[in-house]
Design brief:
There is one protein chain. It is built from eight helices and 30 strands. The protein is mostly beta strands. The protein folds into two domains: 399 residues, TolB, C-terminal domain (Neuraminidase, 6 Propeller); 81 residues, no CATH class. The radius of gyration is 23 Å and the shape is globular. It starts with a helix and ends in a 9-residue tail after the last strand. The N terminus and C terminus are likely disordered.
């Protein structure tokens, strides 16, 4: 259980019109927990801390710690990886505490043998093995001001001891001219040793895999990683600007399939399309590096429609995808029981003030977390942010409440992670299905707004799936029964009929 005294005591629905999201923290400008006030004033005097240059972009939650990342896009950012102890916060604008220490967040020397501290990190991930994964870009500045001080590297911390347990520097072959990596996804397999990190290279259009067990990395390429040339214009917070080079960015993992593998969902920023590839491809160095062998394993699953740009997204254990609809000042959702089409894209909440650029979304247990930071105003406007106004906000909401009343609602289990049912006894003509969805792309089909489904027939179902009064599943069963006419076991394996939503 998260220790959320501060959430319960301080969460409010402010007058700016949010219907569901509960605001937990807010800042006009972020500050840091310096050991003494004298040290804070010293840092300001020497331009080591310039509050106006600190823009939080990423969040993560582990037990009572709420992590917040601040990239070093300009001078005066004293710490890039920070946290808030939620059970000890006494204000809605708490100071950030460097993690794991002040020393670990000092800007390193340009000498690569001294690149042992954190330079700039964007989005981070805590895994089920109580490890915090941090990808350090090794850069300071942004755009034309970017300087590569240190190589791209992965830092992994033991959250129980706050000690770094591994640092891995990407191979030179993994990094291309123009590489910019901000997003990661963590894929824990059957054991903690069987873990992979995936990282999206937004501006050199690649997808990197790192194996914890093998302690090595490799790079994949595909045409789906590139931006859509027709969708490079954005309008956010009253600003019209162009991010036309922005390729693959947001990445997240689905729940496991029957074969134990997951699928990685991804999209370029300059796009309104969503794509997928099985982790069986990304985990295999030979497959991942070979465009010829793996090209048809990537599929387009659908489009979000007008104003469909997004950066960050995450899928929960029920197969609900949450994301930031940045053009709409909204947090969106998609239930993977449905086709990936505009009519099935729901709004969790939206607000033209509080949700200007909801930069990051995270699912922690059965709760959704969101941070908004007005990034386009900070980066693209001539005047910049008004630091007399609230600029940065962090929200949370139980997922059950987030999807209630939206097109994403359905017969879902929010108490425990949904089980992965192994093939069991076959029941002919029963036509009862678990709610577990699978996302295995199948070859030989032109990717076109398509998700293949493996339909599992099971003799038993949880009670919440067999109550027609409260569940739409009976109608769903009838639809699937018409689409999937027959089932047959094949030896000790199962044969699955494929269901194409375009039919």
């Amino acid at each position: 259980m998260l220790k959320l005294c501060v959430v319960l005591c301080a969460a409010v629905s402010l007058a700016h019109g949010l219907d569901k999201l509960q605001q937990v923290f807010q800042w006009q400008a972020v500050d840091y927990e310096y050991p003494t006030e004298e040290m804070r004033q010293y840092a300001k005097f020497h331009k080591d801390f310039i509050p106006e240059n600190n823009l939080p972009v990423g969040i993560e939650v582990w037990e009572n710690k709420l992590f917040v990342t601040v990239p070093r896009w300009d001078d005066g950012v004293p710490s890039t990886l920070n946290y808030i102890p939620m059970d000890a916060a006494t204000t809605m604008s708490p100071n950030l505490i460097p993690y794991p220490s002040w020393e670990a967040n000092q800007v390193p020397s340009q000498a690569q043998d001294q690149c042992d501290t954190l330079t700039t990190t964007y989005r981070i991930k805590a895994d089920s093995c109580d490890r915090l994964w941090v990808l350090d870009s090794g850069t300071v500045g942004i755009g034309n001001t970017t300087k590569q001080i240190c190589p791209y590297a992965i830092h992994v911390f033991d959250l129980k001891t706050d000690q770094r347990i591994r640092k891995y520097q990407f191979r030179p072959e993994d990094i291309k001219e123009g590489t910019f990596i901000a997003n990661i996804a963590i894929d824990v397999g059957k054991t903690c040793e069987d873990t992979f990190l995936y990282a999206s290279d937004e501006l050199a259009y690649g997808l990197l895999s790192y194996s914890w067990e093998q302690n090595t990395s490799w790079r994949a390429s595909h045409g789906f990683f590139f931006p859509d040339p027709l969708l490079g214009e954005f309008n956010i917070g009253g600003l019209t600007f162009h991010w036309f080079p922005e390729g693959i960015f947001g990445i997240t993992l689905t729940p496991p399939e029957a074969d134990g593998f997951k699928n990685l969902l991804f999209h370029p920023i300059a796009s309104n399309s969503e794509f997928a590839v099985s982790t069986s491809v990304l985990r295999n160095k030979t497959l991942a590096e070979s465009v010829e062998l793996s090209y048809n394993q990537y599929v387009k699953i659908g489009e979000r429609g007008l104003d469909g740009h997004l950066t960050s997204h995450v899928m929960d254990h029920n197969g609900i995808l949450f994301f930031n609809l940045i053009d709409r000042n909204a947090v969106g959702c998609w239930n993977s029981l449905n086709p990936y089409r505009p009519e099935y894209i729901g709004h969790v909440d939206m607000d033209n003030e509080a949700l200007i650029f909801p930069s990051d979304v995270k699912v922690v247990g059965d709760d959704l977390w969101v941070i908004s930071d007005r990034m386009p105003i900070h980066l693209e406007s001539e005047t910049g942010l008004d630091f007399n106004d609230v600029n940065f906000r962090i929200f949370t909401i139980p997922i059950r409440n987030a999807v209630r009343g939206t097109v994403c609602d359905g017969p879902l289990n929010y108490q425990t992670p949904r089980p992965v049912y192994p093939p069991q006894s076959f029941v002919d003509n029963n036509l009862l299905y678990s709610t577990q969805q699978y996302y295995k792309p199948y070859s030989g089909v032109t990717p076109k707004n398509l998700f293949s489904r493996k339909i599992i027939v099971r003799p038993e179902l949880p009670s919440y799936l067999t109550e027609p009064e409260t569940s739409p599943l009976p109608a769903r069963r009838n639809q699937l029964a018409r689409a999937v006419p027959s089932y047959s076991p094949s030896g000790n394996t199962w044969s699955y009929n494929k269901f194409n939503y375009n039919n």
